[in-house]
Amino acid sequence: MRNPLQEQLLKAGLAKKSQATQAVREQNKQRQSKQPQAPAAEPSQAERARAEKVERDRALEAQRKAQAHAHELRAQIQQIVEQNKLKRQGEIAYRFADGEAIKTLYVDAAQRTQLAGGALAIVRHGDDYALIPRAAAEKVRERDAAMVVLDHGAKPAAAAQELSEDEAYYAQFKVPDDLVW
Known about the structure:
Layout: H1 4-12, H2 17-32, H3 45-84, E1 92-98, E2 101-107, H4 109-117, E3 120-125, E4 128-133, H5 134-143, E5 148-150, H6 165-170
Antiparallel strand pairs: 1-2, 3-4, 3-5
Helix pairs in contact: 3-5
C-alpha cells in the first residue's frame, strides 16, 4: 500500500525499500494511535477573539442598562417635581446657597416661613428651581440627592460628624433660617 510517489522514488533509486516500509509504519501508527493529541496550551486566536467580544458585549450591555436606569430616575424626578411644585408668587427674596453660588427665589411670607421651618424644600428643576413639599423632596432625595438644593427639615449629615473645637463652640449659637439681612 505504497503511494505512487514512494514507488517512483524506489524505481529511481533515491530511496531504499526499508525506508519506505518505515515511513508506512509511522503513518499507520499516527492514524491508529489511541492517544488523544495534546490540547493546545494556549487558546486559539479565534477563541480569544470570541471571548473578548463576549466581554465587550457584556460591558456595553451593563453600560446601556446603567444609562437606561439613570434616564428612568431623571424622568421619575421630573414627574414628582411637576406634580408637586408650588406656584412661586411673592415679593420677598429668599436667598439660598447652591454649591458656591448664592441664588434667589421670590416667595410670599407663608412660603418663606414654611421653607425656614422645613415644610417646603427647594429642588433643581431644569435650569430653574422649584418649591415642593417635604414629602415630595424625600422622594426626590431617594432617587438623586443632588437634586435637592435646600431642605431645612432634613437631618444634616455634618451633625453626625465630629465637630472641631471652634465649630463645637459656635454651634451653641443658633442663627435663625428666616433671618433677613
